Amino acid sequence: MKRVYKLFVASPSDLEAERQEIPRIVNRINVSFGLRWNIFVQLVMWETSVHSGIGEDAQDVINRQVPEDYDIFLGMFWNRVGTKTKRAASGTMEEYERALNRYVRTGKPEIMVFFKDSASSSQENSPQRKAMLRLRKRIGQDNVMFSTFQSTPQFAEILSLKQISDTPP
Q1: Looking at residue 166, what is its pLDDT?
Q2: For 35, which DSSP code?
Q3: What DSSP string runs through 103-126?
Q4: Residue 4: which of 43, 31, 36 has the closest Cα?
Q5: Is omega for the bond preceding 109 within 30 degrees of 0, making it cis?
Q6: Which of 37-51, 73-87, 118-132 has the lowest mean pLDDT?
Q7: Which residue in 57, 65, 71 sits closest to 8, CA to CA?
Q8: pLDDT of 59 over the 50 cut
Q9: How far is 123 from 119, CA to CA, in rounded Å?
Q10: Which of 8, 99, 121, 131 has its CA 20 to 30 A from that of 71?
């Protein structure tokens, strides 16, 4: 029987190139490692997994429609934390906090956080950039190990698990 891993992706709007790369990466993983190890990665992204609806705000609609049983949380940040919600500093932060709280309660999901380590010159001193740097410190204080990347191709290489061994997960 094939084991399905649900991967939920959370990020502010400044990582569009990386978000567009993720479905291609997941497809490559499913075709290569998935066939070998009888696994399938199901991608959960608001763009493809959420339909329009009514709620307190857009994030409330997303929260109600994203399944709580995902196995992996993938959070990404660059120069922004995102748009503030009624419940958190941003929608992406709200998604991170929900994942972390669930992890503390149940031991799931696996939490993967990535920071793009190159500030665009227009964002270096912006309030969003400063908030993201505070968030990076906080994530470390949450005992969540994070990874950094410099470019979209490097992110794709890291996420593609090119360094993976032949031992299944």
Answers
A1: 44
A2: H
A3: HHHHS-SEEEEEEE----TTTTTS
A4: 43
A5: yes
A6: 118-132
A7: 71
A8: yes
A9: 6
A10: 131
* Token digits of residue 128: 């969003």
Per-residue confidence (pLDDT) for residue 163, from 0 to 100: 41
**Identity at 144, one-letter amino acid code:** V
- 31: tokens are 């075709």
Weakest-pLDDT range from 26-30, 115-119, 132-136? 115-119
Q: Which two tokens stand for residue 83?
A: 């748009």
Instruction: Judge contact between 150 and 117, C-beta under 8 A.
Output: yes
Amino acid identity, position 124: E
Structure tokens at 9: 């992706």
**Helix (H/G/I), strand (E/B), else coil: 131:** helix
Chain centre distance of CA 119: 19
Backbone angles phi, psi at 58, to 5 degrees: -60, -40
